[in-house]
Design brief:
Number of helices: 6
Bound molecules: 4-nitrophenyl phosphate
CATH superfamily: Response regulator
Distance between the termini: 15 Å
Order of helices and strands: EHEHHEHHEH
CATH architecture: 3-Layer(aba) Sandwich
Oligomer: single chain
Shape: globular
Largest sheet: 2 strands, parallel
Number of strands: 4
CATH topology: Rossmann fold
CATH class: Alpha Beta
Length: 146
């Protein structure tokens, strides 16, 4: 799960997907990263921690890390939150196989056409709840396909 800072959107996506994988009885390694290293080592934004807590998920132990080119080898599926994240990840992909792993997360929903998960960083609490609900729907589809 990849966004820009790895403190708002992708930590929520990581927490939601891990929770759904665990509840499904399936098995998958779930991680998240940011295309920038600007917040490296930081906890998720307090507003992301709070909205996750309201839905029964603890993301407070996550720490931001930058996305690495090696993630394109190590992981089977790489989900970008928005088009800018997607482009930055694709710039690091060396092979067609690596490129084929990378998708916009909202493209998992059949009804969505290139929808981005909006960056909630400069907005209010509502933005975080909206992000949570979008990611919750997308992660349902991801788990179904595992
Ligand atoms: P994220 O949100 O990419 O969802 O973690 C942001 C966090 C920090 C900044 C931008 C977006 N920032 O500019 O510091």
């Amino acid at each position: 799960m990849v966004c820009l800072g790895n403190i708002c959107r992708s930590p929520l996506a990581e927490g939601i997907l891990r929770d759904k994988v665990n509840k499904s009885g399936k098995s998958a390694e779930v991680d998240s990263a940011g295309t920038s290293g600007f917040h490296e080592g930081e906890k998720p934004d307090s507003r992301s921690i709070e909205v996750a807590r309201q839905f029964g998920i603890d993301i407070s132990r996550q720490r931001s890390r930058p996305f690495r080119a090696s993630d394109l080898q190590e992981f089977d599926l790489i989900y970008a939150m928005d088009q800018s994240n997607l482009n930055n990840i694709l710039d690091l992909a060396k092979t067609d196989e690596e490129k084929s792993k990378v998708k916009l997360i909202m493209d998992e929903l059949e009804s969505s056409v290139a929808i981005s998960v909006p960056d909630p960083y400069y907005g209010g609490e509502d933005g975080f709840k909206n992000v949570y609900l979008m990611l919750d729907k997308a992660c349902d589809e991801i788990v179904k396909k595992l």
